[in-house]
Amino acid sequence: MFDVIIIGGGASGLSASIYTCRRNLKTLVLTKDLGGQASNIPDIENYPGFEKSTGFELMQKFEKQASSFGADIRYEEAKEIKQKGKLFTIRTEKYDYEGKTLILAFGKTPINLNVLGEKEFKGKGISYCSICDGPLFKNKTVAVTGGGNSALNTILYLSEITKKVYTVHESNEFRAFATLIDKVKRIKNVECIFNSTISECKGDNFLRSIIIEDVNTKVKREIQLDGLFVELGSEVKVDLIKNFVKLNENNHIVINENCETFEPDNNKIKEGVFAAGDVTHLPFKQVVISAGEGAKAALQADSYIRGVKSSFIADWGLRNKKE
Ligand SMILES: Cc1cc2nc3c(=O)[nH]c(=O)nc-3n(C[C@H](O)[C@H](O)[C@H](O)COP(=O)(O)OP(=O)(O)OC[C@H]3O[C@@H](n4cnc5c(N)ncnc54)[C@H](O)[C@@H]3O)c2cc1C
Questions:
Q1: Which of 90, 144, 170, 188 is paired with 68 by a 20 to 30 Å CA distance?
Q2: 91 lines ligand 1 (CB under 6 A)
Q3: Ligand 1 pocket check for 108: Cβ under 6 Å
Q4: Angstrom distance (rounded) from CA 274 to CA 5
């Protein structure tokens, strides 16, 4: 039996675990990986106290600090949440874990293309993170699919290091800042293919080509390339929390200023369930914000367990066991 079960080992979940452990709460962190999205950022320059760090190094420090305070970090995916009275059970592929409180900190996941060959060539030519994988495609030919700001930033970046960038977008214009669109359209090694979707990814051990289809004429053609960057944005995977907590229209978990969640069908607080970081409806998805929200969720979980008002809680100094 754990006092707190945290789902997600990114900035928000690991930060939360530092705080719950320092409040002397028996804490389990269930996560698919170490550090979440931040681990893929080559350079973080805006995390206070670290002028420059790779995301992975920063997240390793989070993990080390959490472990040093006693967080039990297990690399298992949470598959199901069940509630019985005031207790929660989390099912993973290995075990069922019971907890008195939950902190949902499982972030967002890049949106897939959902076409033939995508699964096969994921990590073998198909990437969802240009800053992580872009350097692997120096002087090669790549394609980018997506039409928002993030896709256009990816195109700009890749155009500087690769030989040629195809952009495949399903509508007849990008949906991004005008200045970005203007820049992209003036780059010589970028070829924009509008009104088209990718219908298949092909290759052998590695991605070699994509099939694109004109949305109006349905005519298909094959483009030979070395890499494909999928920039369709990211989403909250709702399977775990549908009908468990309240979500907004974009499927983000709705929280109040104390990181408390709500019942799915009314505005009552969902007792014992807290959320933090990118998975919530709050704006500005950043590492420092996720870490801060994780700390808040943890202190709120502590006050819930102890039955005291959150405004009296501070974390300077470890909580005395007898307290
Ligand atoms: C390309 C890119 C560049 C960025 N650059 C910056 C930057 O320079 N500076 C900055 O501050 N921010 C940056 N960000 C944003 C920042 O990475 C995120 O805001 C932050 O990492 C979110 O942390 P999180 O803990 O809320 O979620 P995540 O980092 O998404 O962590 C969620 C964790 O939950 C785990 N998980 C998911 N589902 C389950 C499950 N069912 N069971 C168990 N575990 C699960 C995941 O494996 C992951 O470890 C960038 C983001 C991207 C995509």
A1: 90
A2: no
A3: yes
A4: 10
Cβ neighbours of residue 130 under 8 Å, at least 6 residues apart? 144, 154, 157, 158, 229, 231
Distance CA 66, CA 218 (A): 53
CA of 193 to the centre of ligand 1 (A): 31
Closest CA to 276 of 4, 84, 1: 4
Q: Is 146 in the pocket of ligand 1 (CB under 6 A)?
A: no
User: Rounded to the nearest whole angstrom, what is the distance from the C-alpha of residue 124 to the centroid of ligand 1?
Assistant: 22
- Tell the residue number behind the tokens 């997506």, with chain if given: 146
- For 93, the token pair is 């592929």
Does 210 have pLDDT greater than 80? Answer: yes
283-299 confidence digits (pLDDT tens): 988 999 999 999 999 99
Residue of 40, 41, 63, 235 to mutate, ligand 1, most atoms within 8 A of C-beta: 41
Q: Which ligand 1 atom is the nearest neighbour of the CA of 47? A: 11
Range of the domain at 254: 2-108+236-312
Give pLDDT, residue 246.
97
Q: Does the residue 276 lie in any domain? A: yes
Q: Is the pLDDT of residue 322 over 60?
A: no
pLDDT mean over 10-20: 98
Residue 321 lies in a domain: no
Which CATH number is 93's domain given?
A: 3.50.50.60
pLDDT tops 70 at residue 95: yes
Q: Are 102 and 241 found together in one domain?
A: yes
Does the beta carbon of 77 lie inside 6 Å of ligand 1? yes
